[in-house]
Amino acid sequence: MSAIQPSIVPGPPLISQPAPGYFRTRRILKNLRRFQNLIRHKERWASDIPLTCPIEELIPPDIQMPERMGYLNREILKAMNVVWRGVNFAGVPTGVTRKRWDGIEQKDVERHYDVILDYFRLPRDTRPHDAYEAVMSVLEQAIGVYESRLKQAKWDFVNPVVWLAHLVRLPITVMERAGLMSHDKSAEIVLGGYGKFMKVAMSAILVLIALRLGVKLPWKEVFAKLVELFAK
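Now predict its structure.
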């Protein structure tokens, strides 16, 4: 049993982000695989070297052997936050717990780490391969999620329901870009307003359909209903 154990999975966010499209999924996959190869070349465990790409694909040709390790470390540091966001968006937990016996307190003491953001701080004192396995496990899970998503994203190009969903979500996307969804309280207020907007929009669509079909409408009741929707 590994000394590094997965931590508890956090709860879902207030607002779920839509699944990434085809081109964004390809970008995320490229970042994850590059990060994985950087770590494989840095740690050089014999069992995984055949799985990685040639180091020449990661390092410029003018960087010689003595400087290569420093270059790998810098590239890992630069990619950390980008990879962490991609892994967490896939729903793969990145937190782990490491138990260590405390001789003074005479009990196991737990320390919490993030296998991506704390990669250079992961404990490697007695079983260094455990830290490497924890990182690779998280990356492989995330890669599997995005490989599956990439297949589905190809069909989304011709799925009218997906295009309609993007259209319906457009106001929320605009408000996210404006920074109005950065806090739970402000997000609740914005979503309340969006709910009213959608009710009015659907009512307007139904009215237009009725007019197109030549249906006579009780206009007083219609306007009263719209006023009621705005007042709520």
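Residues 160-231 form one domain.
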